[in-house]
């Protein structure tokens, strides 16, 4: 991704790479949490199911998986 989208930062590349890996491995719906406008535009072009920080805040209470981690 870094070779094609030079404006993406390492964290955004990591999120997108993880998204595509999880999307390939699971049948469940995957959401990539990206807030930066340019990265969101690129992700939309790539067909990524996007959410932002508010999406994360909304879904955490409904996901028992998150309760295993001591944040």
Q: What does this entry look like structurally?
A:
Helix content is 45%, strand content 6%. The termini are far apart. The mean pLDDT is 82. The protein is built from three helices and two strands. It is mainly alpha-helical and 71 residues long. The protein has a two-stranded parallel ribbon. It has helices spanning 10-25, 37-45, 53-59, and strands at 32-33, 50-51.
Shape, per Cα inertia axes: globular
Helix tally equals 3
> What is the residue-mean pLDDT, rounded to a whole number?
82
Strand content range: 5-15%
Largest sheet properties: 2 strands, parallel
Task: Tell me the structural class.
Answer: mainly alpha
| Number of E-type strands | 2
User: Largest beta sheet: what is the strand line-up?
Assistant: 1-2
In short:
The chain is mainly α and 71 residues long.
Provide the descriptors you would attach to this structure in a database record:
71 residues, mainly alpha, globular
List the helices and strands and how they pair.
Elements: H1 10-25, E1 32-33, H2 37-45, E2 50-51, H3 53-59
């Amino acid at each position: 991704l870094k070779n094609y989208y030079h404006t993406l930062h390492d964290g955004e590349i990591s999120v997108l790479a993880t998204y595509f890996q999880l999307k390939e491995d699971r049948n469940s719906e995957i959401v990539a949490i990206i807030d930066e406008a340019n990265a969101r535009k690129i992700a939309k072009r790539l067909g990524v199911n996007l959410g932002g920080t508010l999406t994360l805040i909304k879904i955490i209470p409904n996901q028992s998986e998150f309760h295993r981690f001591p944040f």
